[in-house]
Amino acid sequence: MTAYSTPTQQVTNNAAVIFDRTASQNGSAISHADNTAAFTISEPGTYFATYNGTAAPLANAQLPETNLVQFTLNGTAQNGASTQHIFTTTNETSAQSASLVFTVASVPATLELVSSGGTYNYSGVTMNIFKIG
Predict the structure, then answer these.
(1) DSSP letters for 45-58
(2) Where are the alpha helices (DSSP H) in the chain?
């Protein structure tokens, strides 16, 4: 499964990043509806997810601000699956990536990417999820 977002989007504190397009989908274990943040896992197993994107603070941000992007599974933050950046200037950007291997025993399960620390602009976001076992 590959999904991405073409326009820059503002994501508020503790909200999930939205992926407006689904580029490819093989099989039925993982699904995503365009213009949503949720990826639905419908088969038990082991999965690998990877995120890439760019974050930037708002022009009126109260700096410094610490941006944290973290995978959540069924609303629970996944330890070791995050990326963080401290913004000190308003014209600063941060290329971000995070990955996660996770097991789903009970379906359906929902995977999301949640942003915290303030409101940030995200661009060039891509999510890839693979069933590996």
Answers:
(1) EEEEEEEEEEEEE-
(2) none
- What tens digit of pLDDT does each residue of 1-52 get? 999 998 999 999 999 999 999 998 888 999 999 999 999 999 999 999 999 9
Contact 111, 49 (CB under 8 A): yes
Which residue range is the domain that position 86 belongs to?
A: 2-131
Helix, strand, coil percent content, the chain, rounded in steps of 5: 0, 65, 35
Helix segments in 29-129, DSSP class H: none
pLDDT in tens, 84-104: 999 999 899 999 999 999 999
Count of domains for the chain: 1
